[in-house]
TrEMBL record, chains A, B:
SUPFAM superfamilies: Pseudouridine synthase. The keyword NAD does not apply. This is tRNA pseudouridine synthase A. It comes from Lysinibacillus irui. One of its GO terms (biological process) is tRNA pseudouridine synthesis. InterPro entries: PsdUridine_synth_cat_dom_sf, PsdUridine_synth_TruA, PsdUridine_synth_TruA_a/b_dom, PsdUridine_synth_TruA_C, TruA/RsuA/RluB/E/F_N. Pfam families: PseudoU_synth_1. The gene is truA. Homodimer. NCBIfam families: hisT_truA (TIGR00071). HAMAP family: TruA. It catalyses: uridine(38/39/40) in tRNA = pseudouridine(38/39/40) in tRNA. Residues 7-105, 145-246 form the Pseudouridine synthase I TruA alpha/beta domain. It comes from the Bacteria.
Amino acid sequence: MRRLKVIISYDGTHFSGYQVQPGERTVQAELERVLAIMHKGEKIKVTASGRTDARVHATGQTLHFDTPLSIPTEKYHKALNVQLPRDIRVLSVEEVANDFHARYSVVGKRYRYIWSCELIQSPFRRHYTVETNGVKPNVEAMQEAAKAIIGTHDFSCFCAANTSVKDKVRTVKTLQFEWHGEELHMVIEGNGFLYNMVRIIAGTLWEVGVGRRTIDNLALVVASEDRDKAGKTAPPQGLYLEKVFY
Amino acid sequence: MRRLKVIISYDGTHFSGYQVQPGERTVQAELERVLAIMHKGEKIKVTASGRTDARVHATGQTLHFDTPLSIPTEKYHKALNVQLPRDIRVLSVEEVANDFHARYSVVGKRYRYIWSCELIQSPFRRHYTVETNGVKPNVEAMQEAAKAIIGTHDFSCFCAANTSVKDKVRTVKTLQFEWHGEELHMVIEGNGFLYNMVRIIAGTLWEVGVGRRTIDNLALVVASEDRDKAGKTAPPQGLYLEKVFY
């Protein structure tokens, strides 16, 4: 058996998220369906770095699986892309040691969140950004408020209530805002993220940017360890899992 | 009655083209459905600069209609965008003289055609560009061959067979290729275009770019006035109606 590390990109618009759910179209289900075809019906279990929610995108989701097939990785790569639907693309296939684990070996992740701040959101961007109806936030304030988030903290305040994870201490390494034309990007990198953490951070810092929350408030939110003190969870279609570090 | 000139953008992916067709989702049908709501059931006929095919996009389609409503154009604009589906956006609403006609007053149009030339097409671009599987054409050759198209010609060679138009003389004012990262854009402007003309030009010049047709061949194609001498019709999802000139 060989272990393969596979990096994929997907348009999350028409998926009920990454993880298999009975009766739903998911990224994992599509991958395992195609692998079963390639393995003559044998079930090949795919393990990803983590799940993504419905409508959330990925430009660098990473996964592994074990395969008895000895075909070269390049051919594997092509065969996967031929069989997969067009909203999932395999970017790379690499043979790795058997102790590589797409989830347990993760040392960091980078996410991107995009708002489209033009007065009328382009119809071509409706599934890929969150519209602000022309509101342009105070990005300097958002960047300043982000200082309270960068570092190692118990991030219970930014974790969706419905989670079974006990240890909520994570390290946010960088959190930067960038304008790309009239689209505002938030790029966040850390050693791990709790359920909905990036979307809750995006929603909370947005409130700072539009003057509904002060810069100083962020330190109180983090210290509170209370989800109710943070802002709204920003919508899924603005979020991209961009890179997984090992 | 006031006449309004309206500029719209639409993502053509989920439309069976611009023009009303029974039982199909079309841009015109959506516009007229929304106008009927705004006019309490009264049918308001919309006239566009011309039709676009299924999956073809627009960033500057232009249309007119007559309305008995006296609400300000700004409010009209907002009301339309509130009611319209998200894959159609109204970019502007302007009151015009009653002799303005979205189709008959046209003096020119600009189209854009986009190929994505990266090895693996981004899943986010699958509906908005045509993939070349990593093939990067010789753009200098395409630009040189385009010289045979620029100017005033009978363009029967670039007109789909199923058309009722008699006079096929048109003037192509400019035809330029531009790289935007790994995406190749063809921008073409002229006083008018025959049915499928831009897509047939794109398909024919592409053949020059990949060495399947010589630069010199283009003059023969144009002179032949024979559709069969030109190349394949390029796929619809790469095409954008960008601007209509009056």
